[in-house]
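Q: My collaborator sent me two sequences in one message, no labels, and asked for predicted structures for both. Can we handle them in order? The first one she listed is below.
A: Yes, handling them in the order given. First sequence, followed by its C-alpha cells:
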Amino acid sequence: MTFSQLTSIALVGLAQRTQEAARSLAMLSTEHRDRAIAAIAAALEEATPEILAANAADCAAAVKEGLAAPLYGRLKLDAVKLQAAIEGVRDVGALPDPIGAVQIHRELDTGLILKRVTCPLGVLGVIFESRPDAVMQIASLAIKSANGVILKGGREAMRSCDVLVDAIRTGLTEAGVDADAVQLLTTREETLALLRLDRYIDLIIPRGSNQFVRFIQSNTQIPVLGHADGLCHLYVDAAAAVDKAVAIAIDAKTSYPSACNAIETCCAPSYCPNLLASGGASPASPSGGTASRCRHDRSSSRCPGQPPSAPPLKPTG
C-alpha cells in the first residue's frame, strides 16, 4: 500500500469523526456554543507562552528558508497580535446566532408558504497560507455557525497552527463539545486527499492567490467558495475632506501592509490630481515607511480646482 493510500484511509477516518462532531454541534443551543467559544478564548490565553514559542520557531525557520517579506509579516504572531486575535474570538461569541434566522417568509398561494431559514453547512475544509491567526478566526466562526472544520495551514506556520489547534480543542473539551469538530492537516498529501472526500466535506474554502484557488477548483468535486483577483482600491469622492482622505489612505496601506486587503490604489477625480502627491509633510507610517500629503493648502476641506457642486458617485447597476 502506498503512502498516498495510507494517507487517504487515515483522512477518511478523521473526516468521519469531524462529520459526526458537526452533527452533534448543530444540535447544541446557542448558549452552549457561545460557552464553547469563550472556553476556546480562555484556553488560547492560557497557552500563550507555547503559542508564541512555536511561532518564534516558525519565524526562525522562515528566515533561514528566505520566506518572502509579505508572507513573513503574515506569519509573525507577537503577544499584541495574539491578544487581539483572542479578543476577536470573544467578539465572535458575542455575535447574534446565525442559525435559525428566517430570511424569507412568503405566502405563494393559499396554504403554500415559502421559507428560507439559515442552517449549518456541515463540514468545512479551509485551506490557507501563512497566517496562524486565521486558525482562531476560522475555528471560532465555525463553532458559532455550528459547522465542523478541517484546517490546512501553510507549511511555514505548521508549529504555530499545531499549538493553536491543540488549545482550541482543549477549550472545546472543557465546554463539553466534541473536540473533533476542529481538525488540522499538516501535509500536502493530506490536502490532495481532502479534495477527494466529497462524502464528508460539504464546502471547501481556499484562502490564497487566484492561481491557488483555481487549482483547488480544478481538483475537487466538492463545492468551492473561491474568489477572483482582489481589488483593493480607495476612492476619494470630490466632496471628501482631504485630511480625512489622507489619514484613511495611510492607515489602509501601512497599518498592516502584508495583509491581502491593504489598499493598492487611491482613486481621485481628475481635477484633484495631487491628493497624495509628494510635496507636503510626510507622516511616518507604522511600518516605517512614509506617505506624502496633498501639496495643496490643507486648511481647505476641498482641493483647488474642484467644481463647486460635484455630483455624488452614482451606482452603475
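Q: And the one she listed second?
A: Here it is, processed independently of the first:
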Amino acid sequence: MTHHDLVILGAGSGNTVVDACTDLDVAVVDHGEFGGTCLNAGCIPTKMLTHTADVAEAVRAAGRFGVDARLDAVRWTEVQDRVFGRLDAVAADGRAGRVDAEHVTVHSGHARFTGPRTLSVERTDGSGHDVVSGDRVVVAAGSRPAVPEPVASSRVPFETSDTIMRRAALPRRLAILGGGYIAAEFAHVFSALGADIVMIDMADRLLGGQDEAVVDGFTALARERYDVRLGRQVESVTGTAGAVRLVLDEGPSRPTRCWSRSAARPTATASTCTRPGSSGTPTGASWSTRASAPPPRASTPWAT
C-alpha cells in the first residue's frame, strides 16, 4: 500500500487542486482523460461543434441576404479532427505534466473505497490493482449520463453525451431523450449538420427551469424545426443495431435512430468512484408508439 498526503479522485476539476498542493505528496486517480467532462465531452467540444453548426446554418440562409451560397456536404471526420485534434492533445499534455511532477503520482483506473481513506484502484489496462491511502481524500469524480431504464436494460446500442460527438458518422435521424439545455444544444448541432431530429420529453415544455419567456419561445421554435414529442416517455426499446424501435406511451410512429441524452448522475457512489465508459454506437434505429393514457405532466428526470 502506498500512502500519500492527499489523494484526489478525478482529473477534471480535481486536477486544479494539485496546483495548490506543491508541498504535499499527491496521488491523482482517474479512469479517463485529464480535463474531465468540460474538456473532453462537455462545454468546450460542444461549443466548437455549435460554431460549425452555425456556419452550416449561415450558408443555408445566405440567400436571405442576397448572397448565393450552397452547402454541398459536411465533412464530419474533418469536423471531429478540428475539435478533438486540439482537445485530445491538451488532455494528453495535462496528464504528462502530472506524471512528470515529482510530488504527484498518477493512477489510471477505477477507485473503490475499502476502508477509511483507503482505496483499491483497478488499473484501466486490466493488469491488476493498487492500494492507496491518504491523510486526506478529495472526491471530485464528477458525473455521468443517467440512462433511462428502458434504454439501459434493452441491450440495444445507444449514444450519450459522452459518446455522440465521437461517433464515426453523422446520424441521418436522431432521437434525443430529454428537453434540457444539453439536449437542445445537440438537437441544434446535429440538425444543422443534416440529421432529422426527434425530441422526446416527459415535461410539457422544453428547457424547463429557465425563464418562462425563453421556455415558451424555444419550445415553439423547436416545434417548427424538429419532431417534438412532449408529455411522453419511452416505455421500451427493442431491436438490434440497424433496426431499433423505441416504444412511446402514445402517438404515431416514424423511423429514427436511438440516442439517449439523460440527466447527469454522480460518478461517485457510497462504495466506489468510477468514470463513465462508452455505451456503444448504433448503426440505425426506428421507433414506434402505441396509444395509452398520457403520463403525468412532470419534469423529466432525463432532461438536463
